[in-house]
Amino acid sequence: MRRQWVYETLDTTTTTLLRSNIFNRILELEKLESEVKGDPSQILVVLGPRSCGKTALMSSHFSKRWDTVYINCRVFDATTPQYFVKEVLTVLMDKMPTLIEEKDWEQLIRSLPTKIVAGLASGLKSTMNGAEMTSWTFSPIELVKSIMSVDPAKNEEPGMNALMKAFQFLLDVWEEAIIKKYGGIAPGEIMRRPVIVIDEANVMMGWNKNYPEDMGTLLRFFVSITKEQKRSHVFLVTSEYGYQTWLSAGTGVAATWLYVRDLCSHE
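== ATPase domain-containing protein ==
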């Protein structure tokens, strides 16, 4: 029954699986689905050899899901925390228009930091009919520009704190959207939690020398929203086997592991 359930979730036929990059990945898919069906407990590290199909597996399964943020560090410069923050903020804000309804704006704005509120104001365009506002159009890129702009008073760019606030904001919106989508949570049921996937996560190992505080802040935040608050799943994908030692011994972060098999050379 479990394998049948995995096929139904992916909405695929046997022929489609045979032609896809996730064929013969039933064990890995079952592990991933088992993780997302339950409450978050720890960071999950997805580890496997280079070119074994990890990215194809994760992107095929997660990149199009409405309740997932998929971040591929291969497609942008993530060598510094500042570059990483800028790209991830853009990805996070891109999720907002699909989740936020107009009637929720007032409540959300009250809870946001002043700088993000300024971004919302610059990102909203109103359509007027005389003195009556008929619609709002939200521009995520304007919000990102506002969050990432230099603060003239302090002459500094927002760092990990801005990123964590954006994550928290998105998690708040997600939780409301999930409850609405599934019509509430019955007693004893586990609320489906969103998923954050960071591919090529070993890029953070390069921060260790010049940006250890940023690296530690981000990892502690991931521990907080998984193990402690159980608000989101976090999957870190890597081909660096030294990542396991670095994460557990070097940073003190506990994680569970999923090993992706090297089934054939063309994956």
